[in-house]
Amino acid sequence: MARSEELFDAIVDGKAALAQSLVGDLLAAGAAPMVIISDTLIPAMDEVGQLFQDEEYFVPELMMAGRAMKAAMEPLRPLMVASGAKPAGVVVAGTVKGDLHDIGKNLVLSMLEGSGFKVIDLGTDVPPAKFVEAIRLNQPDILCLSALLTVTMLAMKATIDAVVAAGLRDGIKIMVGGAPVHEKFAKEIGADGFGVTATDAVAVARSLVAA
Amino acid sequence: MTNHKPAGPKPIGPRRQRVLDAISHRTPDQVPVDFGGSAVTGIHVSVVAALRDYYGLEKRLVKVCEPYQMLGLIEPDLQDAIGIDVSPLFGRTTMFGFDNHNWRPWLFNGLEVLVSGDFRTTLDPDTGSTLIFPKGDTSLRPSGRMPKDGYFFDAIIRQKGEIDYDHLDAEDNLESYKPLTEAQLDAIAADVAAANTGERAVFASLVNTALGDIAFVPGIDLAEPRGVRDVADWYVLTKARPDIVHQIYDRQVAAGIENLARIHARVGDAIDVLFICGTDFGTQTSSFCSVKTFDSLWKPHYTDLCRWIHDNTTWKTFKHSCGASERFFESMIAAGIDIINPVQCSAVGMDPQMLKNKYKGRLVFWGGGVDTQETLPFGTPEAVRQQVLERCEIFSQGGGFVFNAIHNVQAMTPLENVVAMFDAVKTFNGRT
What we know:
The structure holds two protein chains of two kinds.
Chain A: H1 5-12, H2 16-28, H3 33-53, H4 59-73, H5 76-83, E1 89-95, H6 103-114, E2 117-121, H7 128-138, E3 142-146, H8 150-165, E4 173-177, H9 183-188, E5 193-194, H10 198-210
Parallel strand pairs in A: 1-2, 1-3, 3-4, 4-5
Helix pairs in contact in A: 1-2, 1-3, 2-4, 3-4, 4-6, 6-10, 7-8
Chain B: H1 14-23, H2 45-54, E1 64-66, E2 71-72, H3 76-82, E3 86-90, E4 104-108, E5 111-115, E6 121-123, E7 130-132, E8 144-146, E9 154-155, H4 182-195, E10 201-205, H5 231-240, H6 242-267, E11 273-277, H7 291-312, E12 316-320, H8 329-335, E13 339-341, H9 352-359, E14 364-366, H10 375-378, H11 381-395, E15 401-402, H12 415-428
Parallel strand pairs in B: 3-10, 10-11, 11-12, 12-13, 13-14, 14-15
Antiparallel strand pairs in B: 1-2, 4-5, 6-7, 7-8, 8-9
């Protein structure tokens, strides 16, 4: 199947209801769910990411595209599960303990989901033990930790330490991000990857699962 | 009918004079200093308490003057010890919609502080977090949450269901912007009179004219907020329905000007600096919108507000915007904004020397003194000292600079670093 230009535009323009309805039309016409994702949805989110990098898109546009992607994925997700199709990777994510901020995390997760990753979102103010439990349960490829505050950045280290103590560190890659987080800090606390923006996060996640 | 006369001419002491010089782009005798002047230039209550101990001041509990971020009141004895040139003038009603009065002790992470008698909280049994109530009314749904062992509150989103962007009423998002009551005006006039000693410059945050500030979007002061109250939905609204956003800003500015006119009629020019808006336009590396969007969606409203202020008062207009905000500075200046804060030099495109070279004489930098994301909380005292001296050297040339850290000094900031910051400013100013 060639790319559906209408669906591509609906995602890029952030039109959630239209995107979902177009996915329904494509499924009814016999398109395979995985093909819709790989030929149209992922390229559309790549385009959104590029527009963001080029500063033609900003946070509102990114959010609208993310919502359109989520709406488009809704009818596809159960079909993907039923068919046993493999995602680009499995991600467990959350904002670390003591921090209630989730806008940045949600942006990153919508971009990751739009890029074919399966995302398990633990929410905000997530204690290290809950991350450990989720890793055991879901066996993700990547653990994503978010923090907005300088006072909660240190909870990222506590979380990574807990993952190490639980003997789970070798099986996963860890990405960190958030306004005050920087590459040096990421390295110091033992993370494998760091992204400044939501689109960076997708590139980093892709490289980590490919490594 | 009571006939109120505006306050008479103010005496001008050296501290106030240096602020007036700096904000008028004249070289002051020393770099003026603000800490505690506003809700974006303050110090966390735990650090204020530690500073009182450090300077050997009278033992007393510190008042939480701003409960959302848990900022501590810096009283005159501590202002003197630090060398602060600015006095705060907050409205009595807090962001949670209750008044700061009837102070009572409250145990905060092991530290006893003073909070308003209407600062009413409960513990969430599931998470151990502290919940706070709008208007201090525990019969309402809580509007703020502080995580267990946390240091400040965040808004609880109480928006009713999903937003139908095709059917919105701007009025729903305007509930917080009402005319001041006569009692509120009387209180403001009394507070201005108390602050207007002439010793320090008066920095007023009295009327909410913040356009789209996400701290206010959730309506944490309201019993049952209507309209768009989820922050993510608000960002989408700016793109999906700019017509509604214009209506909100139009009416918000009109209400703000009406209130400011009534305040001005009572207090005259007793205010030196007016906080007008804390909406952040910058991120670490980019911005929340394009300059084109800023110019179409925000600039006309800032222009209306600033024009009234400049046509009718001597007050200088203070705008806060975190992050990589430089791309908006020309538009802000054109709109009538006099002062920018917090001057986040660690963000992309915010090099101190470049900023000073480009905007000298046109925009006052109120902040930028030290990085609060890395240097102040995680650096050494010497690193803090070096950065403060360097920033003072760059920004103080020809006035146009009031020293402040980049945003509030946060909890857990090492005391020796905070003191090193104050000492470095004193060193620069030749005080030691």
